[in-house]
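Standup, Tuesday
Yesterday: got the pipeline producing structure tokens again.
Today: sanity-check two examples.
Blockers: none.

Example 1:
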Amino acid sequence: MKGLYAAGFVVGKTTVARLLKQAGYRLQAVFKTKEGAQHPDRDAQFGHINSVAGMFLAAGDRVVSVDTKKKELVGEYANAGREWQPSGEPVAVNGHDFPTGVPKAIPYGVYDVGADDGFVAVGVDHDTAAFAVNAIRAWWYNVGWDRYPRADRLLITADCGGSNGNRPWAWKARLAELAAETGLQITVCHFPPGTSKWNKVEHRLFSFISISWRGRPLTDYQVVVQTIAATTTRSGLTVEAVLDTNTYPTGVRVSPAQQRAIPLQKYAFHGEWNYVVHCGPIPESLRDKAITLEPIK
């Protein structure tokens, strides 16, 4: 408009908007589609995950999708979205968010693909590998143990980064502890870098939790847990939630000797993404033998 004024034209915002529309322009928000450079085996890894998951489900074995949801401030802080309230009576919250020193809720989700239900452990300390595996442990003892009493295998699909990333040895070491404790052979398939939104826990669990607490201040941890547990969908999704008050120190290292002691066996296809953690020691011959199709029992 300033440019038109400088050229001697008098025009209002309505006329400018009309002319822009005639020229094919519209007001639009940014669209998150760019994922950066794609790994050349991105689609092949998707196919591998689908094949292994299908194999597990067909055999009656369990498949879960896991991840950490965005951390949330706990207290009288604004939450995105809107909620029905009496006219002129919005919920009052703090005018500013001060993240430093404010308690945070760390929701770690476990989505059971076959059962179409979710489990969330809400942490209060740090998002570490120990916290992630303890959330899976909580799911197993609260839900999985009773639901699948004869299960001896578990498939976990997870992102490549974060507390359940494919690189940290702490994640694998903690999984080995869980496998030994439960007797489960745990297979893990990681989504390629930059593709976390395809992990089922994101769009089948976390998206509905965000809807449940939209426009509501998460005033304390109990509200966080109760709001998550109240999440349902028309298709029948239900969610169980627990509070994890344990402390999880950061910077925990796994020595080379401890790494070697992990009973881990890799798939032939991208063994850094796809591997099996056995529930007990395995012969060196199996450790060095890549899995080509079925996980070796």
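Example 2:
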Amino acid sequence: MKTKNLAVSILVAVLVVALWWTMLLKPARSKVAKVKSDTGIQQQKLAPLQRQLSQARADAAHAAEFKAQLQSLQLAMPDSPALAAFLRDANGIADAAGVTWASVSHSAPVPGNGGVQSITVGLQVQGTYGQVVEYVSRLASLKRLLVVDSLQLATSTNAAAGGDTGQSSTGPFSGGNQLTATISARMFATPDAAAAAASTTSGTSAAPAASSSAPASSTATPSGG
């Protein structure tokens, strides 16, 4: 009898364990495994998002620097020829350097690669050797990008100086009390897409007329420097 009761107890215990395994432990372990799997998938998705967030924070931290660089580029190559602004700057540095700004000429914008327009500029100033060197240095430091293609120097005599060469210095040059510097350079503009498209459309018909006309030019009144 005791043996029978013991067998029944063992059987009941086995059934309880089986039910516990089937009804509780196995589903719980399955849920845990699913949760782990879902967590791994979400972690894989999270990694690129974290990288994007880090990049966005880095970009935001450098936003002011990027803005300053963009402004510098816009000043170097504006979206229009901005000739009036350039003439003011060229005259301003002539006064600062002490040279006499004799004349300036510029050609019409010529379309180039990537929608960049090239404008040929001719400048002529007079002054002592030191004044001319100062002017060229200031010209190179303009915010507007200017590529100097040629620089020609020639001596001349300033009538106002009464032929007294001792009052002026032409450095390694001789034969006069003044230097005349003739500069040929190029500056650039980057018009927007609409302006570039309009320029391209009208360029074919306008080209023959432009080729037969002289470049636009202006002559400045000597500043007395």
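Quick observation on example 2: The beta strands are 100-106, 110-111, 117-127, 146-156, 178-189, 217-218. Residues 161-166, 204-225 have pLDDT under 50 and may be disordered.
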